[in-house]
Amino acid sequence: MADSRYDVVVIGTGPGGYVCAIRAAQLGLKTAVVEKDNTFGGTCLNVGCIPSKALLHASEQFEEAAHAFPKMGIKVGKPSLDLGAMLKFKDDAVDGNVKGVDFLLKKNKVDAVRGVGRIIGPGKVEVKSADGKVQTLETKAIVIATGSDVTRLKGIDIDEKRIVSSTGALTLAKVPEKLIVVGAGVIGLELGSVWRRLGAQVTVVEFLDRIVPGIDLDVAKNFQRLLEKQGIAFKLSSKVTGVDSSGKKLKVTVEPAANDKKDGAVETIETDVVLVAVGRVPYTEGLGLDEAGVKTDNRGRVIVDEHFATNVPGIYAIGDVIAGLMLAHKAEDEGVAVAEILAGQAGHVNYDVIPNVIYTYPELASVGKSEEELKQAGIAYNVGKFPFTANGRAKANQQTEGFVKILADAKTDRVLGVHVLGADAGNMIAEAAVAMEFGASAEDIARTCHAHPTLPEAVKEAALAVGKRAIHM
Question: What is the pLDDT of residues 101-144, one digit of tens each?
């Protein structure tokens, strides 16, 4: 039984929650976390970021062994798949990470209270454990960090066996012959890529007329072409209106998104598995927000001010449960910021510099504004692009797909957005984020010496291209 009086009680131990708790403890605040699941880490560590990246890595190695190794003179024969072992590899990655969070909470003397948390009044959190026992934690501040849940499609019941969410897609018992992915966002494309590499025929159905909404359109179109080249099929401007699961095969009804049901426009596609990946919604079930008087918006997100405070004194919220990108690192930064604010410091998050990465192959990473956003805002800008076909390391590694694109203010040359489509883009985007955090110009990046031969040289060349003086193009 934990001590019942605290400075801070954090509900949820996903990346936002556990980071918030650790930072608060570092700052001398007596802190507790409330977690309803058996393990820490929330969706990200248990059924999201970490397990999906493990499968992305493993499946990428599987495909590389089959297709890239022979080109490099490595003879290993045709690789065979042991799916059970691959899933164990994924599970081991999860286990190591959640145990790491457990260790960090203990190291920082954060009390962990197991059970479902509910706000029952100002400064009071009731926690009901699995065995039915109830305890009340008293605290000066409550931080809601309960994350998000899978968005459901009306009339399509997820059973996590044949009709799956991202959670079920991580544990399929066998590689499906055919997989239909509903939604061409990050989750759908990443998990679709995994099963395509392992042998599934993958078709992605997307309501919009483009993939990865929110990403720079020029980059998204090139990204789609690369995925199609790999064998992923796309049905854009289309919607799934039903799934018949009565037979051995699933029968998926697909219609035009515009409801223009012309002859032949509605089709039925047979498949083995359907992955529903149409987004996520804030998880606030059972929190007692209405009773506590905490205001939410029309999408169920908790409304907060610039200091992450709700309309109820002493109650704060961070991460997926509030407005903004649903990204683990965004939640982490918010967790640190609110902890520092509670400790009397000036916590802050720069939302103009939040990297976004899609971990397919090649990866797609971006930070800052897209061309569409700059046009809408009426900001004049210059563009610098550099293809990996002209990068020495990329050519040596046979990783020449994609490019780097930099958008800079036409008047000040300040970098406003960077987009990388290519191998290791997720790591390369960090340079751009640091540069933008310090208000760098394209000229600053262009005049920074980059090691040769490396993929990040393409970032330097794109910066040079903003001034129309790229060297290697």
Answer: 999 999 999 999 999 999 999 899 999 999 999 999 999 999 99
Could you tell me which of 194, 160, 202, 159 has the C-alpha nearest to residue 177?
A: 202
Q: Is the dihedral of CA 157, 163, 166, 171 positive or negative?
A: positive
Largest Cα–Cα separation, the chain: 69
Which CATH code of 3.50.50.60, 1.10.443.10, 3.40.50.300, 3.50.7.10 fits the domain covering 5-150+281-342? 3.50.50.60
So where are the chain's domains? 5-150+281-342, 163-278, 356-466
The 201-205 sheet, strands edge to edge: 163-164, 273-276, 178-182, 201-205, 233-235
**Stated length of the chain:** 473
pLDDT of 3 reads 60
Q: Which of 307, 348, 452, 472 is catalytic?
A: 452
The SS3 call for residue 71 is helix
CATH number, domain 356-466: 3.30.390.30
Question: Average of pLDDT values for 390-414?
Answer: 98
Of 363, 359, 315, nearest to 190 by C-alpha is 359
At 147, is the pLDDT very low, low, confident or very high (cuts 50, 70, 90)? very high
Three-state SS at 469: coil
CATH architecture of 163-278: 3-Layer(bba) Sandwich (3.50)
Helix axes 328-342, 15-26, angle to 10 degrees: 30
Q: Which tokens sit at 376?
A: 């809408």
Q: What is the pLDDT of residues 316-353, one digit of tens each?
A: 999 999 999 999 999 999 999 999 999 999 999 999 99
348 a catalytic residue: no
Place 262 in a pLDDT band, splitting at 50, 70 and 90: low
4 pLDDT band, cuts 50/70/90, is confident
Q: What is the pLDDT of residues 152-180, one digit of tens each?
A: 999 999 999 999 999 999 999 999 999 99
State the DSSP H helix or E strand holding residue 372, giving kind and residue range, or none if neither.
Answer: helix 371-377
Question: Do the domains at 5-150+281-342 and 163-278 have one common CATH topology?
Answer: yes
Sort 18 into a burial class: Cβ within 10 Å, 0-12 / 13-18 / 19+.
Answer: buried
